[in-house]
Specification:
Elements lengths: L2 H7 L26 H5 L17 H13 L4 E5 L2 H12 L5 E5 L4 H11 L5 E5 L15 E7 L11 H10 L3 E5 L4 H4 L9 E5 L13 E5 L2 H14 L5 H33 L4 E5 L9 H7 L6 E6 L7 H7 L4 E2 L9 E5 L15 E5 L5 H11 L1 H4 L15
Parallel strand pairs: 2-3, 2-4, 4-5, 5-6, 10-11
Antiparallel strand pairs: 1-7, 6-7, 8-9, 9-12, 11-12
Helix pairs in contact: 3-9, 4-5, 4-8, 9-12
The structure holds pyridoxal-5'-phosphate.
């Protein structure tokens, strides 16, 4: 055989049996078949076997199976991001003329997809108050196809009565889709409470290191799974084995990471709660957080995510405060090793409810020392109370 051929074939060898502790990374676009007729019949094994790298590799199957088991689900579909997991599910189940009910506090980009894309296709999108509970029944009409839940809302932390909503939806025959990114299957398993389809942004807690994007959709119904899997083929979405391997690595430490971040976050939230420049802390463990009693009933645990509402006088100084933080990096996303901070304004992103408290600051607490994180807040917080001359904001602080 010529060297040219031998070069091409150098990586073709089967490795035989080799057992490491973790799943090997199988990279593939092409999957090879033993015979022409096996190739022609390949779609018989589309859902569970291997036909083409985009639709699954042994590495992605290990992750799918792990996530299904953790969620008490039967199947998992992986997508390149949490947002694509949400939009793929909506496009798989919602048709022109349908009505969908969407929680008012849902993830911003999915709201944009509903308003800017689904609405244009002739889908009626109706938003509802996260506190609706069993009264969701009054919003369900014969056209209502699907209800989208997210609990708690990932900026303002309203907790929902998921079992009550799922029970009402079941009676009326509509599908319940829940974004469970906040809790992950560790803190809450929506499939055990009547939810049909659960989406999780693995980019957050599961990957956990701020360097991977992926989404997961789990189902308990084989027909729903097949519809979703068919949809991935239609639109051409898949994930790489390398990134599946990184998410599998993240899963192993998710429980300890989350517990540690939760403990630190609660400490910081309690300290912030006592500061005169903070009007309110938005964290489900605080009794004035909407849905606090439901959180106690259903979960009772938390993670590193919470927000604060600065007082009216402190509102103009929010950016100066955020800029003064050193350990908390400014950026989107959460659930990772590094602490993050992001100023947000929920006002414009509501229509079924009203947000009148102004801008908020969201923290995603990571794994740094709680003492160092507290010291960072302590050195930056005085910025919130500095007065700026409204006539000359560029001159900075002035002493009244
Ligand atoms: C981040 C996030 C998503 C989207 O995940 P990406 O992987 O960043 O697309 C969806 N839902 C919630 C609640 C999120 O926080």
């Amino acid at each position: 055989m010529d060297d040219e051929t031998r070069y091409v074939q150098s990586n073709d060898r089967p490795v035989g049996s080799f057992d490491g502790l973790t799943a090997p990374i199988y990279r593939a676009s092409t999957v090879v078949f033993p015979t022409a007729s096996a190739f022609e019949r390949r779609y018989e094994q589309f859902y569970d076997g291997y036909t083409y790298g985009l639709y699954g590799t042994p590495t992605s199957r290990v992750l799918e199976k792990a996530l299904a088991d953790l969620a008490s689900a039967s199947d998992t579909v992986l997508t390149p991001s949490g947002q694509s997991a949400l939009t793929l599910t909506l496009s798989a189940f919602v048709h022109p003329g349908d009505r969908i009910l969407v929680v008012d506090t849902c993830y911003g980009p999915v709201r944009a997809y509903c308003d800017q894309y689904l609405a244009r296709l002739g889908v009626n999108v109706t938003y509802f108050d996260p506190g609706v509970g069993g009264r969701i029944d009054t919003l369900i009409d014969p056209r209502t196809r699907l209800i989208l839940l997210e609990s708690p809302g990932s900026n303002t932390m309203e907790f929902m009565d998921v079992p009550a909503i799922a029970a009402a939806a079941r009676k009326r025959g509509c599908l319940v889709l829940m974004d469970n990114t906040w809790a992950t299957s560790l803190l809450y398993k929506p499939h055990l409470h009547g939810v049909d389809v659960v989406v999780e942004a693995l980019s957050k807690h599961a990957a956990g290191h701020g360097d991977v994007l992926m989404g997961a959709i789990t189902t308990v119904d084989r027909a729903l799974f097949r519809r979703l899997k068919d949809m991935t083929r239609l639109v051409g979405l898949g994930v790489s084995a390398d990134e599946c391997s990184l998410v599998l690595r993240g899963l192993a430490t998710l429980p300890v990471r989350m517990a540690r971040a939760a403990e630190t976050a609660l400490k910081l939230a309690e300290w912030l709660h006592a500061q005169p420049s903070i009007a309110r802390v938005l964290h489900p463990a605080f009794s004035d957080c909407p849905g606090h009693d439901l959180w106690r009933r259903d979960i009772g645990r938390s993670n590193g995510l919470f927000s604060v509402v600065p007082t009216k006088t402190a509102q103009p100084n929010i950016n100066a405060f955020v800029d003064a933080l050193r350990l908390f990096k400014i950026g989107a996303s959460w659930g990772g090793t590094h602490s993050l901070v992001a100023p947000q304004d929920p006002t414009g992103a509501r229509c079924a409810t009203r947000w009148t408290e102004g801008r908020i600051v969201r923290f995603s607490v990571g794994l740094e020392s709680p003492t160092d994180l507290l010291a960072d807040l302590e050195q930056a917080l005085p910025r919130l109370l500095r007065k700026i001359d409204p006539a000359n904001p560029l001159l900075g602080e002035f002493v009244p």
